[in-house]
Amino acid sequence: MVRPSGPPAQLSESARPSKHREHPSKSPKRRREGKRLQRRGDGHEQLLSETERRRLPSQHEHSDLPGSASDTAENSPKRRAHFLHGPYPATHFGPKACILPNPTSVMHIQDPASQRLTWNKPPVNVLVIRKIRDESLVGPFKELCRFLVEEKQMMVYVERRVADDASLSMDETFGSIRNQLCTFREGYDDISDCVDLIICLGGDGTLLYASSLFQGSVPPVMAFHLGSLGFLTPFKFESYKTEVAKVFEGNAAITLRSRLKVKVVKDMLQRTGQESYGREPQQQEHNGLPHGHTSSEAGKVTLQLQVLNEVVVDRGPSSYLSNVDLYLDGRLITSVQGDGVIVSTPTGSTAYAAAAGASMIHPNVPAIMVTPICPHSLSFRPIVVPAGVELMITLSPDARNTAWVSFDGRKRQEIQHGDCIKITTSCYPVPSICCHDLVYDWFESLAQCLHWNVRKRQARLHAFKVKVLIELIL
Question: Is the pTM of this model over 0.85?
Answer without folding.
Answer: no
